[in-house]
Write a structure and sequence with these properties.
about 475 residues; alpha/beta; four-stranded parallel sheet; 21 strands; about 30% helix
Length: about 475
């Protein structure tokens, strides 16, 4: 493969040092050539400005089917150089001794090689995300975090030592094979699947994530499972699928908001996270929209009059809930006044509002998966052994109960209707609606914005078709976005 090194001014790179150095003007007028060999282009022209020579060089290279570094997509991404807050965690984890020695740390990244050895791990990750020959990284402390900026660097900005290092690295690059970009193959769309490898009870296990990626590929979507540390720039993607437990005061919500603002198709969308993660909103909306649910009261104080009213209205046992929580966390059953008083005191230290709810024991809870207003799967989750919930966080051996996965047409109509009404309150995303049923009456417990979708559990009936349906909805929304 022939390598062309395109520069603004050939005097910056002598032909004696590097073969194949040409000016942008030469590349503009003299290429492509008839019967030319396979060609790759190292674009060293200034490209920080939109519609600069560097921008046009990469644009022309892509039009001429020359492999080019950096691509137009990378140039555009680097023009929005400030990294998201979610990416700062990567910085903290890779800096020496947990921080920087100097108040401000700067370094040049030359084809992924950093001039500051202590930051090489970070430089490698950034180059993989933003493959460009010359990058400038600046790190500065700001409000107990690190403020990181990344931009393209020009040849003229290199000092003598950096220039010597760059010449050596450039020689290696012109002789090395370039890794084939998998995305050159057939993919039209790029999707980031946000996961947390350290999460104890993630919304999807590894088997499910692998099947989501496989289903996406069949529909022309290149999906990658990434942690928040790896997801430095959301602008690289067309869609974001959140498979990490969400919360409002959390990077999942901030990332969903930022992705939606940038025009990505997002599940869970920020409105769904905001509504589902707060049970105060849900139960208030359920009452207003006449969604069948258990008797619930929002508390803002814990005096004796409040305790008396709870005992009269609910009796014992009753359930106390934190407004935010998932996977049965923040939910407590109380059996008497002393326990009620102490548990309320504990919860009011964390939240100004607490929910009280009537207690209804059933052998299992229904979970109906709803996507864009239609039910796509159904499960019955049985209570954990010797416990009143499907998850028992105090037991490692019997953490959860058994399950049945059923076709939606076998679900009682009252349950299915309640699930669709409840999800309509939240939006048109992907939800898991938890429902109890007794005496042919359904009671909605909550709507989950990122429901469990695990291999060999929720997909036990539909199999790969479940993953295909969800990815097909992403595809439909991506196609609609482009109209």
């Amino acid at each position: 493969m022939r390598t062309l090194i395109v520069v603004d001014d050939t005097a910056l790179l002598s032909d004696e040092k590097q073969a194949g150095v040409i000016s942008f003007s030469t590349y503009l007028h003299d290429y492509p050539k008839l019967n030319e060999p396979r060609t790759r282009v190292i674009n060293l022209c200034e490209s920080q400005r939109y519609l600069s020579k560097g921008y046009y060089c990469s644009l022309l290279a892509e039009a001429r089917h020359h492999r080019v570094l950096p691509s137009v997509k990378t140039i555009n991404a680097l023009r929005n150089s400030e990294q998201a807050d979610e990416g700062l965690q990567l910085i903290e984890s890779t800096l020496p001794d947990g921080g920087v020695v100097d108040p401000v740390k700067s370094c040049a990244i030359l084809f992924g090689r950093c001039t500051e050895p202590a930051l090489q791990g970070l430089a490698t990750g950034l180059f993989q995300r933003f493959p460009a020959p010359l990058l400038k990284l600046d790190i500065a402390p700001q409000a107990n975090q690190w403020r990181v900026t990344l931009r393209q660097l020009s040849l003229q900005e290199l000092n003598a030592e950096e220039r010597e290092q760059f010449d050596a690295v450039l020689t290696v690059q012109t002789e090395a094979k370039w890794k084939q970009d998998r995305n050159d193959k057939k993919y039209r769309w790029e999707m980031a699947i946000l996961v947390d490898p350290e999460e104890q009870v993630p919304p999807s296990n590894a088997g499910a994530i692998a099947r989501f990626i496989k289903a996406a590929a069949k529909l022309g979507i290149h999906a990658q499972a990434l942690s928040v540390h790896e997801l430095l720039d959301i602008n690289h993607y067309d869609a974001l699928f959140i498979r990490e437990t969400t919360a409002i005061d959390h990077h999942t919500y901030r990332l969903a908001r930022r992705a939606e603002e940038q025009g990505l198709v997002v599940l869970d969308d920020p409105n769904s996270i905001l509504r589902c993660c707060n049970k105060v909103f849900l139960h208030d909306a359920f009452n207003y929209q006449k969604v069948p649910s258990l008797k619930t009261q929002v508390l803002n104080e814990q005096d004796d009059r409040t305790l008396d009213a709870l005992e009269n209205d609910f009796g014992y046992p009753l359930v106390l809930k934190m407004p935010e929580g998932s996977f049965s966390k923040g939910v407590f059953k109380v059996k008497g006044r002393a326990e009620l008083k102490s548990r309320l005191a504990e919860l009011f230290q964390m939240s100004d509002l607490v929910l009280a709810q009537e207690y209804l024991f059933t052998d299992y809870d229904w979970r109906i998966g709803v996507l864009d207003g239609r039910a796509i799967y159904a499960c019955r989750y049985y209570m954990a052994r010797n416990h009143w919930q499907i998850y028992n966080h105090g037991s490692k051996r019997f953490f959860s109960g058994g399950f049945d996965c059923l076709p939606t047409f076998e679900v009682p109509k009252t349950v299915l209707d309640a699930a669709l009404r409840a999800s309509k309150v939240v939006g048109d995303g992907l939800y898991g609606v938890d429902i109890k049923m007794r005496d042919n009456r359904a009671y909605v417990l909550e709507v989950n914005d990122n429901p469990s979708l695990d291999y060999k559990i929720e997909d036990a009936y539909l199999g790969q078709e479940l993953y295909m349906q969800i990815m097909a909805e992403f595809l439909r929304r991506l196609e609609n976005r482009g109209r």
